[in-house]
Specification:
This protein is mainly alpha-helical.
Amino acid sequence: MKKNIGFIDKTIRLLLAAVFITLFIYEVVGGVFGYLLLTLAVIFILTSLFNFCPIWMIFGVKTSKPK
């Protein structure tokens, strides 16, 4: 897997994941939509940890700096 997520993209993903998890924990959102946001938060965290997003690869987007 080639790195295709840059620092700003990673930061935005982690911040959104934190917001989604907080909304779920404090029961601002619940039900199916709450679990959907929680799943999306986990995906954002995993893609940030691995610096790789399969959707960016499909569309040919790279937010990381070239070497």
